[in-house]
Amino acid sequence: MPVRKFRAIEDVPPAEAGPPGGDSFRAALDLSALCQWLHPWAAPRGVYRNTSIEEAQARRRRWEAQPGCVD
Asked: Where are the alpha helices (DSSP H) in the chain?
């Protein structure tokens, strides 16, 4: 695919959109389900506020030591 340059945003042609929920979206969902089935993992829920980088790293090490975490 060639690279094209435009001087203004108005010169850029609109993107060609496919139908919503098309085949590529369904394939992505199926692939995600397959990956989760082959290698299930769970990330901790929530947002954590850490007072230092050392605290954040310690929290991550504890999380990674649990079974079922992201490799």
From this structure: 23-38, 53-65
The Cα-based distances of 55 to 15, 48, 59, 63 in angstroms read 45, 10, 6, 12
Distances (CA, A) of 38 to 43, 61, 68, 70: 16, 24, 12, 13
Q: What distance, in Å, lies between the first and last C-alpha atoms of the chain?
A: 35
- Torsion angles phi and psi, residue 55, rounded to 5: -65, -40
What mean pLDDT, rounded, does the chain reach?
Answer: 85
Length reported for the chain: 71
Q: What are the pLDDT digits (tens) for 37-48?
A: 998 877 778 899
